[in-house]
Amino acid sequence: MSKKNGNSSKKGGWLSRLFHGGGNQLADELLGSEKDRAAAADVEAIVSPMRQVVNNFLERKLAVGALCLLIIMFIIMFVGPLFMPKYKDAYTEVTQQSMAPNMRLMSVPKELRNDIKMIDGYGSFSVGLSNAGKVYVWGSTQLGTTGVDIGEIPEEVQNAKIAMVAAGIDHIVAIGEDGRVYCWGANTLGQYGTEEEYLASGKKENPNIAFFPQELADNGVDVANIKKLTCGYQASAILMNDGTLYLWGNKLTYANMDLFLAAGNMYDIDFTLNYIVGLNKKRNSIYTGSRDLYTMVRGNLDSKAVKMSDYLDGRRIESLTATNTGVCLLLDDGSVCFSGDFSLNAVPVPELAADEDFVEIAGGSYHFSGLTNKGNVYSWGQNDLDQTEVPKNTAGTAKLYTGSFQTYAVDENDGLVAKWGLKGYLFGTDNRGADIFQRIINGGRMTMTVGAIAVIISSIIGILVGCISGYFGGKVDVLLMRVAEIFAAIPFLPFAMILSAVMGQMVLSETMRIVIIMCILGVLTWPGLARLVRGQVLLARESEYVMAAKSMGVKESVIAFKHILPNVMSVILVTLMLDFGTCMLTESSLSYLGFGVAYPRPTWGNMLNGANNETIINAYWWQWVFTSIFLAVTTICINIVGDALRDVLDPKASVEK
Amino acid sequence: MGKYVLKRFGYMLAVLVILSFILFMIYSLVPANRAYNDASNEFKGMKNTLPAGRQQEYFDELYLKYQRMYGTDTDNKVVRYLRWIGLYPLYDGSYDGLLQGNLGYSYEYKKDVVDVVAQPMKNTIKINIFATILALGITIPLGIHCAVKRGSRTDQLVQVLTIIGYSLPTFLISILFIWVFCSKLHIFPPSGMKTPGSNYTGWKKFKDEMYYMALPLITMTFCSLGGMTRYVRASMIEALSMDCIRTARAKGLREKVVIYSHAWRNALIPIVTLVVGWFLGIFGGSIVLENIFAWNGMGRIMIQSLRVADYDLVLLMQMFYIGMSLLGTLVIDIVYGLVDPRVRVNK
User: Fold this and answer.
1) pTM (2 decimals)?
2) In angstroms, what CA-CA distances link A415 with A325, A359, A391?
3) The CATH number of B113-339 is which of 3.40.630.30, 1.10.3720.10, 1.10.580.10, 3.10.20.30?
């Protein structure tokens, strides 16, 4: 009978039964509409136990939802990594540390799109300038825990007509048409401000700061004669056409800054991550002020390095463009060569046609983009964040600008032609600069694998011991149960930590360590399952079908594993499901405390490792929120499904526990 | 009964001995050599006063002296183990092990292990007693309510919430609570045990301590809500389905009497055993929680000594944990027999 019908006839049923006995209702049911009868037959038809279980399970909407979510999670975690071929466990990037979730790193503001004068970027944000002299900032503009939002452009800059801009890791320098130099952003380590201003703000003297030159602050700069304005990590430089160099910033990041402060007469200058590189008027070598730095060059990223003087062979260096680790030199014959370190998987410079030469090179954090005299655009260098994936529609490009991981191609009318590179991070970055989204997907796979294998180990031991113990009984039972009790008496977390710590003292490979952690988890969780199986087997042993099998002379081991085990399988499966959740949780707790799977291998536990004090929990919320959500959703789903399964498979069990 | 307890106790001791042996063996895998460290420390101090030729010889002598002192002058691990327990004499014929009251010496704190553990244990017990009382005060009424109103909206909601509650690891709940209560609402301090630099006395001191204890306490209570509520609910449901309840209802007793007098008493049996076992856990402390909140308890000491490889301390604490958990099982069995006359423990 359908549910609706059943409800509506409840009251009537009671009354009618009072007067007519059961007969009337029975007749009603028998003579009811065709549909009703069909429905009644449907429910009353005998269904197999398995089918009944499935039906019952499907009735629980919450559990079905949880199961779907769980399956989706599994698929994401195990298929997802296939779509991330560039993912590396140990990836770190100092300029991208702790960035908030942001997909707008490459979103040039609409007003700027057809009016680009210049674009620059070094770290998490980019700054652009329109021909009207207006400054735009986009990207991840909140600077860590400093509370500074670099996107808030000072009013005096908004009001002034700006001629040039450049961006450092956490500051922006802009030069007005009138020659005034404006700076804003973080100012903890002398990114801007004269010594006078610095001391006036109540800070202590700091010998590691090269202050903003007083003469620039007083007189401004001759805008017409500026050759280059560039910014490094926490330093900035203005190079004049006559070779004069104005340089200021944090000396600790640039060890050779003092030498450049003393040197004059430069032809070109740029910043790598740790050194300032310059070009003096002779233009035949890179000036760093230190010996053996950038003295070797190579024709392409993957070719062999040779001595600079041998390679140049009389040619002169036209310009120099630095990334974080290397320098690209554009020679006066239109060819390029490289000095410094480039990673093994860097994309090399493409072969140019015989009459094609580079006319302009722009450098990001780890990639270069070059424009040739035929108007073709190429990108090369590291491609971890899609920096070198040049789109097809770059025709008409006249100028190239680069952010840290982006390239912007601009045509002759100052309109944006194309942009490529890093769009942003969906879930932000961690304190090492790695993409949290990618680590969550890859870490999920590891977390689930560890949990699953631990459960498999524990279930093999548990089922074996439980079956043997329950079926054979007697001394075997006593002995095995005593062993189980010994294992059950071991306090889990402390013991696992100790084993893990002891292992840490030994020299083991990372994979070996993970395998051992799985084994520890598995070996410490089997007693519960063993007891459960034993209890079930004890019950089953007394049942009639086992008696029948015995009387037919079936071997004991066959009875135990072939006849009894399948009948207690349902209970075991439920326990396995719930144990899987527990093992994942335990692994996470262990890794969180630093005793489980260690960095660089990601797991959801060790990704939360950093969230251990209030400052980080509050300021870098994205570093724990997303990972926590994934972990929580997975374990909650596992428990809901496991709970529902237990109720469905064994209605009595839900009452007992 | 007495015989049964005695038998169980003897068996417990046997398990303790076996586990202590296993643990000791695990520890001896650690390449730490205390005698060598001490010898080289002392040697460094007097190195310059010795003639060049005799230096190695003198060091060996010193090393041997320390080895004999610590009982590591043999490679036989069983002998070392027996010395640690105090059943095998050291080189000079004396016994100095656990049985003689020598529980070990913490290298990190330069104190006897017992002295190191004393204060943290007090802290741990303090917070745990509060947490247990709070948790029981919430879960028992809630569990009973859900069992009586089984299948109602409230019950279903509580069921889902408790699943969520026990699916979340402690550290995650802690992070969440710190974020909500400290960063967003600014109600509680995120960590520590008292206002730094403060030197309060009397009432003010108590208030300060309670202020700092509040958040770890709330978190700890919250973490135990899920599992405990479900447990109470399940035992109550089982009790409610007993024949005696039907009889009581048939007699026409008021529902309140049926629930609180008849059903609850029956449900109490499994709950009491659980709670008694739980009380022993009080001494162990929560490793995760105490670390996040910088609560100077047993769990924190444990992790810290693990991080600095202070293995004498870790070994003793581990033995303590195992002893507690074994004692817990024993107590549960005995209490079960006491509260439920149907369970014949001496069978």
Assistant:
1) 0.85
2) 31, 19, 16
3) 1.10.3720.10
